[in-house]
UniProtKB/TrEMBL annotation:
Record HAMAP family: OTCase
Predominant subcellular localization, coarse grouping: cytoplasm
Molecular function terms, GO-annotated: ornithine carbamoyltransferase activity
Keyword presence, Membrane: no
Enzyme Commission number, as recorded: 2.1.3.3
Domain Aspartate/ornithine carbamoyltransferase carbamoyl-P binding: 3-141
Chain positions recorded as L-ornithine binding sites: 160, 224, 228-229
Subcellular location: Cytoplasm
InterPro entries xref list: Asp/Orn_carbamoyltranf_P-bd, Asp/Orn_carbamoylTrfase, Asp/Orn_carbamoylTrfase_sf, Asp_carbamoyltransf_Asp/Orn-bd, Orn/put_carbamltrans, OTCase_ArgI
Protein name: Ornithine carbamoyltransferase
Species this protein is from: Catenuloplanes nepalensis
């Protein structure tokens, strides 16, 4: 059966650990793994604009020996005049995997429902699972392990990063705390699913209102932009409710002294994170950004059945 990666809990704890193990091997020997040599082609489709996602997949697929085909769907007739399912069936005859960055989760689910090659979620409104693999790889490197560590995410708790931290963190056996203002809470179904996974892995899940309570003695502090792509013109005031959730020196002082700070980028400096934290000694943001390459290479190779 073709395996897809549409959300974080599509990997079991053992599978997530195996992908991260492979990512560490690939990072240590960056050009030594060529499972897509031939080369095999991989379609990378973009409904949403991107910098890091586009380049990290492009570079990573090339380093695996493959041929990345980057498609801006706004500049093609992909999905217009034909169903996504029809297009996906054709692409499955051309390429070895389909990667897509889009809006609604229903769009990528429709593609995966008929694709005969692996489909990978490079970001949807609901989840950002490839980013979380990079984050977990960074936590492994900086904290030694993920299991048993406490991760605090503060800010827009209703967005895709919050959902992915809940699911991926629980899968990794972490204690995940999410804190956001009223009206910006995570999907209750995602919280329930994360709690179910955490009960299995030894982690835990908490949804809080107080950012200082969330960050207290945490190993990892994470945040994201307060206004996600596509929300810029909705007229909703996010600055006022989110201001108390800014990641600044006062907030991170309540975490462990060696806690690390993550941000998936792009960052709105002075809003969700201050310059001194973003550029400070506890920031792991640049490692996190680089690890997109290694984590995504490992994921694609693993989905293709490759093991080092």
């Amino acid at each position: 059966m073709t395996r897809h990666f549409l959300r974080d809990d599509d990997l079991t704890p053992a599978e997530q650990s195996a992908v991260l193990d492979l990512a560490q091997l690939m990072k240590a020997d960056r050009y030594g793994h060529k499972p897509f040599a031939g080369p095999k082609s991989i379609a990378v489709l973009f409904d949403k604009q991107s910098l890091r996602t586009r380049l990290s997949f492009d570079v990573g697929i090339a380093e695996l020996g493959g041929n990345p085909i980057i498609v801006d769907t706004q500049a093609t007739h992909f999905g217009r005049g034909e169903t996504l399912a029809d297009a996906a069936q054709v692409l499955s005859r051309y390429v070895s995997a389909i990667v897509m960055r889009t809006y609604g989760d229903d769009r990528i689910a429709e593609i995966a429902s008929v694709a005969t090659v692996p489909v990978v979620n490079a970001l949807t409104d609901g989840f950002h699972p490839c980013q979380l693999l990079a984050d977990l790889l960074t936590i492994r490197e900086r904290c030694g392990a993920t299991h048993g560590r406490t991760l605090a995410y503060v800010g827009d708790a209703a967005n895709n990063m919050s959902h992915s931290y809940l699911l991926a963190g629980a899968t990794a056996g972490m204690h995940v705390r999410v804190a956001g203002p009223s009206g910006f809470d995570p999907d209750p179904a995602i919280v329930a699913r994360a709690a179910e996974i955490a009960a299995w892995t030894g982690g835990s899940v908490s949804v809080l209102r107080d950012p200082f309570e969330a960050v207290d003695a945490a190993d990892v502090i994470a945040t994201d932009t307060w206004t996600s792509m596509g929300q810029e013109g909705d007229g909703q005031d996010r600055l006022t409710p989110f201001r108390p959730y800014q990641v600044n020196k006062e907030l991170i002082a309540t975490a462990k002294p060696d806690a690390i700070v993550l941000h998936c980028l792009p960052a709105h400096r002075g809003d969700e994170i201050t310059d001194d934290v973003m550029d400070g000694p506890q920031s792991a943001v640049l490692d996190e950004a680089e690890n997109r390459v290694h984590a995504q290479k490992a994921l694609l190779a693993w989905l293709a059945g490759y093991s080092a």
